[in-house]
Design goal:
The chain is an alpha/beta fold and about 425 residues long. The protein has 17 helices and 14 strands.
Length: about 425
């Protein structure tokens, strides 16, 4: 990996390079996505089945469109029982963690008859997109569905592409069943997002769409936002390791590569105050790359977006980490908890050398759907609040309103909204 001295100039160059991965730079695909969405809106399942044949080489009909109970039952038979139990354990951890996020409605009543409050209501129907193709993502299924169930969403619709043989990956189906998905449809890509956003004959329109996908899925989610809600526009995966001389080079290298293997746009960055650690990590990375299965993808990722930055002190290193605002941030310092208190921007923070990033991806419980590409400066991980709506409650008695009606009328008059003022005034004529 390239080793660079951290300065204001090198930091700015790095930030500009990382921003190139944004979906805003894929305008050429927007017309394709817009056409797919419009076609699905007009022709519904007919368009979806044509796209399934074109993109997934899969023949789907109305009779085979929805995953059946029998298909789910067969999926269980195809998986190792131990792996099924591991998924159940993971789901339990995710559920326990997210139950602590749940909030209740509240009301504050005063003696003068004023009642203010907040009513929290689960969304009625949520759509979960799970990628398919060559890879299977049961962990993504759990991470998107379990918080929705904790929030109390009564209807969860999942879409995922089928293979050429018309079947869905069994691990994905079992994860969906464990998590509590209500219906699963065999459709992927922008056409799946359009179906969830606008509804078809078989797929009901949802209130919100969550889940990652390729560039077509990301652009489709952006296109339908406003008609339905979405979680976020997920960018390429990224990891930043913040380390001092106490870190173990082998661990740091292994953790960097855990994200570099995702795809060629993934980012892996080490910021350290130790030149010796920087050199040793670079050597360990080279050693690992030679033996890992996805070495071609890893190498391209490192060539494009892999950096080892040597900082003059930990304060400078921390400030750079806050500017990058990484999706995953590992802190491998002598006192990681103290370092963590100075971090303002990160999707998920992993403390200590036995808290490597895959722990969060699969098992610990916190959500692995995280803000990417610097958006951790203003976005949070997927959580229970993403699946509920909050309504303000306002109730005033005549006595309570009488005390303040002149002030409200004055406010409205100063804004030139006399009908607003009159709405209050007529009650005290």
């Amino acid at each position: 990996m390239r080793i660079i001295t951290l300065t204001d100039e090198t930091k700015q160059n790095l930030l500009e390079n990382l921003l190139k991965r944004s979906t805003n730079d894929y305008g050429d695909y927007e017309k394709i996505v817009a056409d797919i969405i419009e076609n699905v809106k007009k022709r519904k399942e007919d368009a979806i089945f044509e796209y399934s044949l074109k993109f997934d080489k899969c023949t789907i009909t109305k009779d085979t469109f929805q995953v059946t109970k029998e298909e789910i039952k067969n999926a269980y038979k195809e998986l190792d029982e131990h792996f099924i139990q591991v998924m159940k354990n993971s789901a339990a951890n995710i559920r326990t963690y997210h139950e602590k996020q749940k909030r209740n409605s509240w009301f504050d009543a005063k003696e003068d008859g004023t009642i203010l409050g907040q009513k929290i209501t689960p969304m009625q129907r949520v759509g979960v997109y799970v990628p398919g193709g060559k890879a299977a993502y049961p962990s993504t299924t759990l991470m998107n569905v379990v918080p929705a169930k904790v929030a109390g969403v009564p209807n969860i619709i999942m879409t995922t592409p089928a293979g050429a043989d018309g079947t869905v990956n069994p691990a994905t189906l079992v994860a969906a069943d464990i998590a509590g998905v209500d219906r699963i449809y065999k459709v992927g890509g922008a056409q799946a997002i359009a179906a969830l956003a606008y509804g078809t004959e078989l797929i009901p329109k949802v209130d919100k769409i969550v889940g990652p996908g390729n560039i077509f899925v990301a652009l489709a989610k952006r296109a339908v936002y406003g008609h339905v809600s979405i979680d976020s526009i997920a960018g390429p995966s990224e990891i930043l390791v913040l380390a001092d001389e106490s870190a173990t080079p082998k661990y740091v290298a292994a953790d960097l590569l855990s994200q570099a293997e995702h795809d060629e746009l993934a980012s892996a960055i080490l910021i350290t105050t130790s030149k010796e650690l920087a050199q040793k990590v670079s050597e360990e990375v080279d050693r690992f790359v030679k033996v890992l299965e996805r070495r071609e993808i890893i190498q391209k990722s490192l060539d494009n977006y892999g950096y080892i930055l040597v900082a003059p002190d930990m304060e400078t290193a921390i400030e750079a980490a806050n500017e990058i605002a990484s999706e995953h941030l590992e802190i491998l310092t002598k006192n990681p908890f103290d370092t963590m208190t100075k971090i303002r921007n990160a999707g998920a923070i992993f403390l200590g050398e036995y808290s490597s990033e895959p722990l969060g991806d699969y098992y610990a419980g916190p959500n692995h759907v995280l803000p990417t590409n610097g958006t951790a400066k203003f976005f949070s991980p997927l959580n229970v609040d993403d699946y509920v709506k909050k309504s303000s409650i306002i109730s005033y008695s005549r006595e309570a309103l009488e005390k303040v009606h002149e002030e409200i009328e004055l406010f409205a008059q100063k804004e030139g909204l006399t009908a607003h003022a009159n709405s209050i005034h007529v009650r005290f004529e």
